[in-house]
Amino acid sequence: MSDQAVRRKPVQIGDLRRWKREGRRFAMLTAYDYTTASWLDQAGIPILLVGDSVGGVVLGHLLRDGAYDTVPVTLEDILHHAKAVARGARHPLLVGDLPFISYRLGLDEATRSAGRLLQEGGMQAVKLEGGGPMIEVVGHLVERGIPVMGHLGLTPQSVHAMGGLRAQGRDDEGASRIRDALTGLEQAGAFAVVLEGMPSALAAELTAATSLPTIGIGAGAACDGQVLVVHDMLGLTIGPVPKFVKRYAALGEEIAEAARRFQAEVESGTFPDPEHSYG
Ligand code: KIV
Questions:
Q1: Whose CA is nearest to atom 1 of ligand 1?
Q2: Does domain 3-248 fall into CATH 1.10.3720.10?
Q3: Is the CB of 214 under 6 A from ligand 1?
Q4: CB neighbour class for 36 (10 Å; exposed up to 12, middle 13-18, buried from 19)
Q5: What atom of ligand 1 comes closest to residue 70's alpha carbon?
Q6: Contact 138, 114 (CB under 8 A)
Q7: Which ligand 1 atom sits closest to the C-alpha of 97?
Q8: Rounded-to-integer distance, Cα 258 and Cα 153, Å
Q9: 107-162 pLDDT, tens per residue?
Q10: Catalytic annotation, pick one of 22, 109, 196, 253
Q11: Which of the chain's ends, N or C, has fewer CB atoms near its CB within 10 Å?
Q12: What is the largest CA-CA distance in the chain?
């Protein structure tokens, strides 16, 4: 590990508000395993999210149209991956996603679920989706010392209620629902909010109006930070990706090509050669 990585201070939730005040943009990526988390830490990514997107990209849960499905993800799934990420990442702020249902059965259940992500999963904060009745849950967790990141706009756990994974806030009514939810999250004490799948102009307006650091995904360039699913940005995802995804690598093709070369060398008898064999 480089000297710079060794000297870095672990990121705290208060850093995000300071970065917003200073106009300093920041990146968040998802991570689900020890190795990837270690590399992302070494790269200096300040926030890692153990997202319920693990359901699609790692566990292969898909909706009927082939898009990722987060609904089947359980608290045990998130805990399993959170523990691995926490072993690999020492500097980033670690945020664990509360999966569907785990925080919707009542305030005590939400506290228990969130508490497990901190106690057993090694996370420093949790994320949960939605406004409306979820605002009370956020306030309840924050009062009990559990930092909460909100998530508004396209909230994939509500895919069936939304009638598909579609951008939100495109009409006046939808936009004002998101505005109200953001005000509610701010008052309830959330420390940041993900804005997903909404018009760039709305995300820009919300970012300017709120003291909460906003982290965009499919919400334009004006958000304080940006997040992507790590498999999407590395080019590992099977099948089409949403319009907002930029691929920074093509690791899927590299994996397939390396596997083909290995297979060819095994079949031709050129692997292992003397260099890779014990004398
Ligand atoms: O689960 C996830 O990966 C997320 C991000 C897309 C924000 O919630």
A1: 51
A2: no
A3: no
A4: buried
A5: 1
A6: no
A7: 1
A8: 39
A9: 999 999 999 999 999 999 999 999 999 999 999 999 999 999 999 999 999 999 99
A10: 196
A11: C
A12: 74
